[in-house]
Amino acid sequence: MTAASQYAHHFPVSWEELHRHSRALAWRLLEQGPFHAIVAVTRGGMVPAAIVARELGLRVIDTICAASYDEEARGHVQLLKTVAPDLAGEGPEAGAGCLVIDDLVDTGETAKVIRKLLPRAHFATVYAKPAGRPLVDTYITEVSQDTWILFPWDIEPQFTPPLHTRRTAG
User: Fold this and answer.
1) Which of 70, 86, 102, 146 is catalytic?
2) Can you tell me the distance from the alpha carbon of 98 to that of 121, in angstroms, rounded to the nearest whole number?
3) pTM score of the predicted model
4) Active site includes 146?
5) Contact 103, 113 (CB under 8 A)
6) Which of 62, 70, 103, 154 is catalytic?
7) Which residues contact 146 (CB under 8 A, 6 or more apart)?
8) 86: annotated active-site residue
9) Cβ(127)–Cβ(107) under 8 Å?
10) Residue pLDDT, tens place only, 32-73
């Protein structure tokens, strides 16, 4: 059983929708800066971060690499790579002027780790679930906690039977 199959709802997102929502995020962030750099949370935050960087005219981009779950299961947050020290700064001022971008805040566990590392950064996501929403400063679309978002890099077009044919006898 995959992690995605354990959710009551699925929310497929096309490339066009992700692009539109990422641009909407950039629009909201225009008034929040100034930012001197973007920190993309890999892997999901890389595409939105590229779009936001273009829209805000930012060319300094770094990554923070964290792993907390895959298609099979969830686990604790493992930090694989952090940002360059000269970019983020140190101590209580770490992250000042940085914009952290991720595709989604779910339970908030990854966001908590990043907040400890970069307490002054502005944290923005395209999508937010209720458990993680308080940990981000800006987001575009909220989905329910029991929804699995199907990002365009995780899906391919295929036939889907009509809803009326999927009813279970009972």
Assistant:
1) 102
2) 5
3) 0.85
4) no
5) no
6) 103
7) 7, 8, 9
8) no
9) no
10) 989 999 999 999 999 999 999 999 999 999 999 998 865 555
